[in-house]
Amino acid sequence: MSESEANVDWDAEAAAFDEEPDHGLRDPEIRRAWADRLRGWLPAGAADVLDLGCGTGSLSLLAAEQGHHVTGVDLSPAMVHLARAKLAGRDAAFLVGDAAAPPVGEQRYDVVLVRHVLWTLPDPARVLRHWRGLLRPGGRLVLIEGRWGEVSPVGIPADRLAELLTPLAGHVRVERLSDDPLLWGKPVTDERYAVVAVP
Question: Are 139 and 110 in contact (CB under 8 A)?
Answer without folding.
Answer: yes
